[in-house]
Amino acid sequence: MAAIFNLRSLFSLVLVILSLSNLCLVDAQKGGFSVELIHRDSLKSPLYNPSETLSDRVTNSLRRSFSRVHRFKPTSVSTKAAEADITVNSGEYLMNISIGTPAFDIVAIADTGSDLIWTQCKPCSQCFKHDNPLFDPSNSSTYKKISCTASQCDGIGGGNSCSSSNYCQYSVTYGDQSYSRGDIAADTITLPSTTGRPVALPKAVIGCGHSSDGTFNEKTSGIIGLGGGDVSLISQLGSSIDGKFSYCLLPISETGKSSKMNFGSNAIVSGSGVVSTPMTKKSPDTFYYLTLEAVSVGSKRIPFTSSSFGTGDGNIIIDSGTTLTIVPEDFYSELESAVSSQITATRVEGPQGLSLCYEAQNDFAVPDITMHFTGADVKLKPLNTFVLVSESVACFTFSSLQDFAIYGNLAQMNFLVGYDSVKQTVSFKPTDCSKN
Prior knowledge:
Blueprint: H1 18-31, E1 33-39, H2 54-69, H3 74-77, E2 93-99, E3 104-111, E4 118-120, E5 144-145, H4 151-154, E6 160-162, E7 168-173, E8 179-191, E9 199-213, E10 222-225, H5 233-237, E11 244-248, E12 259-263, E13 275-278, E14 288-290, E15 292-297, E16 300-303, E17 316-318, E18 325-327, H6 329-340, E19 347-348, E20 357-359, E21 369-373, E22 376-380, H7 382-385, E23 386-388, E24 393-396, E25 398-400, E26 406-407, E27 415-420, E28 425-430
Parallel strand pairs: 3-10, 4-9, 17-26, 18-25
Antiparallel strand pairs: 1-2, 1-12, 2-3, 2-8, 4-10, 5-8, 6-7, 7-8, 8-9, 11-12, 11-27, 13-28, 14-17, 15-16, 15-21, 19-20, 20-24, 21-22, 23-24, 27-28
């Protein structure tokens, strides 16, 4: 029986005394902490739709995956406004956090592909429909707008501007023309830890949206940026977590449970089976770049030569919000050929975007596939390489799109994946995430 993490009363605890907040940050540094990472199709998610079938959920996830990929286009990543090309409803995981003093609870999309933490705020001249109350900054004793001359304003990147009162403002426009605009401010963020009392981050930089509209979901109120840029949650936690975070993503069949995201000493990935690969620093610094040298199918090794991110180091992005693993078309053609040559099952049509699908009978067997990152051979399990799109059809979890290269979340499930921004490494450890 998989463990179910019960936060019980932790969500209701409020840290209103600054000294207590600082104490919690010290605890986070010494002992680490963990939070729930909720898949949008989990029973714990406010986005859960009980009328959807497995096929519906997988098909919708694939659609979001392809929409999300446009964020990583060369035309997008050439500027710091890296959020520009994406359908806003494309994230796969949610987080609960609180903002302000007293703490105000929000549910937002957890996104390793963006930096800014923002939520809708009062007053809102144009807001997307939202089921829950909006954050009112006038009710928070720790809320403070940030001046245009402050260094925090520069850290926002290409989407910032100045108000007539000389306060810093942000503007994010997404690929489907959804947008969010508002003030850049400092306030206390509180994370509801699953491993102890809540953890507070005083004077965190946030976006307070006063004008937001488009295809946002009424059950969520914003974005929690987990990227590598200056204003992401990871960077703002900084030395309190020693630059470390990790996650263990449950298989999509585990709809009744939550995954976990770990910080600080809780995020250390160690023990038998751990492999580590260097991260490469590239522009924009939002994304986490790895170097993929080859992919093996059984004993056949297929060299990975290049992508839109270059021919050398940092040729693939690892992203928890993209479902599929995306590779360039020429490479995918060779990869698919190698995989299909070792499968004897009956080939069938699958959803749009997935070209390698089979009848999934009890004897359905797939070849071993290994990702050869620099210094780290990650051997994938069948649940990482094929996904059931219906009760009787399974499809290959890799796809092609132009010359992109993104290591998606299906390939990461049942691995403890650890990021260390100090050592500049990403580590992988095969793990039963239901027991982690």
